Amino acid sequence: HAIMKIRNEIIRATYEFFHQEGFVKVDPPILTGSAPEGTTELFATKYFDEDAYLSQSGQLYMEAAAMALGKVFS
């Protein structure tokens, strides 16, 4: 119980800090339609009858978001 409250306060303070510093919260996708950064071993699944893969890196999405939005965090 206490750990959950402490964790909540840390997350809240982190979000507040980034907000005050002008950052935008971005949530990169968890499932992707292709392998990021040329990786070969992927966890495959179906998503709306299409192949989807568990994303191994949100870096590519964050780089694009940073170019569009400036300061971002996830």
Find the count of extended strands (DSSP E, 2+ residues): 5
* Beta-strand content estimate: 15-25%
Helix content: 40-55%
Give the spatial strand order of the biggest sheet.
Answer: 2-4-3
Taking the sheet with the most strands, its summary is: 3 strands, antiparallel
Please tell me how large the radius of gyration is: 16 Å
Q: Which structural class should the secondary elements be placed in?
A: alpha+beta
What's the total helix number?
Answer: 2
Report low-confidence residues grouped into runs of 5 or more: none
What distance lies between the first and last C-alpha atoms, to the nearest angstrom? 25 Å
The geometry reads as flat
SSE order: HEEEEHE
Mean pLDDT: 86
Domain Aminoacyl-transfer RNA synthetases class-II family profile: 1-74
Pfam family, one: tRNA-synt_2
Organism: Opacimonas viscosa
Keywords: Aminoacyl-tRNA synthetase, ATP-binding, Ligase, Nucleotide-binding, Protein biosynthesis
Structural description of this entry:
With 74 residues, this protein is of the alpha+beta class. The chain has a domain of 51 residues. Strands 2-4-3 form a 3-stranded antiparallel beta sheet, with no helix packed on it. A two-stranded parallel sheet has the order 1-5. The longest helix has 19 residues. The protein is flat, with a radius of gyration of 16 Å. The protein starts with a helix and ends with a strand. The relative contact order is 0.21.
Which helices and strands appear, and what pairs or packs with what?
Layout (H helix, E strand, L loop, with lengths): L1 H19 L3 E2 L5 E2 L11 E4 L2 E5 L4 H11 L2 E2 L1
Parallel strand pairs: 1-5
Antiparallel strand pairs: 2-4, 3-4
